[in-house]
């Protein structure tokens, strides 16, 4: 798979999780916890493989990088808001929908603008990069280090005033 195909497939996972999370009701706290933790995990992995591998690879062919980095920070901030809310908070769905809208905008910009720009790297490079992204995605998904970072991050987000 080429790099843009790997990332687009992962965008579908993220968009699906946000849609499912937004559709939960205030009483479904277990389901919310499960989906929210999965979203945190997948978003961490996604942001990291882009920041670490994809964005540096397209730095010469895409003028959108600083905007994309700013949007990653915005997504992170909005995710922090969702993480801090009680699972039955009446504002939960509103905040999830705002995060969903930011993520939809960001992934749309990547898919419609940045990924076409990345085609300037050529098919071979995109295939090679796609393999690297998938390998890193697997490593981060199963690594104990990543789980530890997530636990710490969750703890930090919950105790922040
Ligand atoms: Fe991104
Ligand atoms: Fe992305």
TrEMBL record:
Residues 4-117 form the Hemerythrin-like domain. It comes from the Bacteria. Pfam families: Hemerythrin (PF01814). Transmembrane segments: none annotated. PANTHER family: HHE DOMAIN PROTEIN (AFU_ORTHOLOGUE AFUA_4G00730). This is Hemerythrin HHE cation binding domain-containing protein. The lineage of its organism: Bacteria, Bacillati, Actinomycetota, Actinomycetes, Geodermatophilales.
């Amino acid at each position: 798979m080429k790099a843009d195909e790997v990332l687009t497939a992962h965008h579908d996972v993220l968009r699906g999780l946000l849609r499912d999370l937004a559709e939960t009701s205030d009483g479904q706290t277990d389901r919310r916890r499960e989906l929210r933790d999965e979203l945190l995990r997948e978003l961490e992995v996604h942001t990291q493989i882009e920041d670490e591998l994809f964005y540096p690879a397209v730095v010469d062919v895409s003028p959108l990088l600083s905007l994309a980095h700013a949007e990653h920070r915005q997504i992170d901030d909005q995710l922090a808001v969702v993480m801090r809310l009680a699972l039955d908070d009446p504002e939960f769905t509103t905040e999830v929908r705002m995060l969903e809208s930011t993520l939809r905008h960001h992934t749309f910009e990547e898919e419609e603008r940045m990924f076409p720009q990345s085609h300037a790297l050529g098919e071979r490079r995109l295939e090679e990069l796609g393999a690297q992204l998938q390998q890193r995605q697997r490593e981060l998904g199963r690594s104990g280090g990543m789980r530890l970072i997530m636990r710490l991050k969750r703890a930090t987000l919950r105790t922040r005033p």
